[in-house]
Structures are given as C-alpha cells and as structure tokens.
Amino acid sequence: MRERGGFTMVDEIYLGLSFDDAFGHTALAHGDDVISINSFSKYFSMTGWRLGWLVLPPELVAPIERLAQNLYICPSSLAQQAALACFEPASIAEFERRRAEFRARRDFLVPALQAMGLRVPVMPDGAFYAWADCSAHADSSWDFCFRLMREAQVAITPGRDFGPHAADRYIRLSYASSMAHLQDAVQRLQQLLSA
Predict the structure, then answer these.
(1) How many domains, in total, are found in the chain?
(2) Are 75 and 102 contained in the same domain?
(3) Do 110 and 189 belong to one domain?
(4) If DSSP codes are grouped into helix, strand and coil, which group holds residue 52?
C-alpha cells in the first residue's frame, strides 16, 4: 500500500480490551500513513452512543472534516459529557476491572469449550468472544445453534453470520454475560453434549 501512496485503515475499537501486552498497542506507531478508527462503545461501555474518533495523517484532516460535516453536525452534548467522564481515574479503574473480568471469563470458558470438543483454534486476545469449531458435534453450525437453543436454552451464533469461510464448522460465543450465567450455560452444554 505504501508504494502506491495509500493509507492503512485500522479498526482499533477493541484495542482497549486486549489481554496481552504484545497486542494491546495502537497501529499508529507503524507509520504516518495509518488511520486509526476507535470508539467509546467497547472499552468505555458506551455501545449505541455512536461516539468515536479517528487519528489521521495531517493531510487528511481537512478532507475528513468536510466529509463529516456532510454526514452529521456533532455528537449530542450528553454523549460528549459522558465521554469526558470516561477519563476520570475512577472511571478508568472501573474499565480496567471490567477488562480483568472479561479475561477471567475467557479463561473459564475456553478450556470448558475445549473439554466439550468445541475446539477454539485461537485463544481470544481481547474483547468478549470465542470462535469455536463445532464439527465434532454437527455438520452444520446453523443446525447446532438451533439445537442448543431448543434443547439447552443456550443461544450461540452460527459461523455464517461472520463470513462464508468454513462457516458450517464454527460458532461464536459471547462471554459478555456474568460468570454465573456462563457457568450455567457451560453446565447445560455439558449435559446436552455428553448425553
């Protein structure tokens, strides 16, 4: 891309929820041709507020400002005030507590999935999702998800919602719920899949 004078756009919305210091760094250090896209929605728990930011090379600031002026006027005053409150020390402490909780949930869920034959090919580095192979239990992740919903009352998302590659083999599980709910879900899955 650099040899053609292009820019690299990097979606860093989950960056603050990284668990591994090796990966939790912005791509901006890789050159002045990087555009970083970020948001208050994930790390700062402001999903739905539609508030975020771009870090741009200086020559792109004016063109992006013109584009933004044609798309919207500005974020609401309430959203801006809430965003400012995110940077208070007490707020950051809470966000870090929540990030540690997501890591603990991941560290509980992934080994439990592996033990049930739901292989997780890549340990999630952040956020609150696990991508697991359900082919040991079903030929179709779509059918598998419906079976789990009907028989175990556990809702899981089939792989086809995230692209066509090997979609029938994979499911995505969220560990954004409480540890108690995750433990209950794992117990229900274990009962169903071991029967």
Answers:
(1) 2
(2) no
(3) yes
(4) strand
Cα separation, 67 vs 64, in Å, equals 5
Sequence length of the chain is 195
67 and 138 co-located in one domain: no
- Measured CA to CA, the distance from residue 87 to residue 13 in angstroms comes to 16
pTM, 2 dp:
0.87
Q: Which of 87, 113, 138 is the last residue of a domain?
A: 87
Give CA–CA dist 135/141, Å, rounded: 8
Question: Sign of dihedral through CA atoms 175, 176, 182, 185?
Answer: negative
DSSP state, residue 74: -
Structural domain span for residue 57? 2-87
* pLDDT by 10s per residue, the chain, length 195: 567 778 889 999 999 999 988 777 888 878 888 999 999 999 999 999 989 999 999 999 999 999 988 887 788 899 999 999 999 999 999 999 999 999 999 999 999 999 999 999 999 998 999 999 999 999 999 999 999 999 999 999 999 989 999 999 999 999 999 999 999 999 999 999 997
Same domain, 81 and 102: no
Assess contact for 105 and 128: CB atoms under 8 A. yes
| Nearest-angstrom CA–CA distance, 71 and 91 | 30
What CATH number does residue 103 fall under?
Answer: 3.90.1150.10
**Same domain for 67 and 132?**
no
Do strands 52-55 and 157-158 pair parallel, antiparallel, or not at all (unpaired)?
unpaired
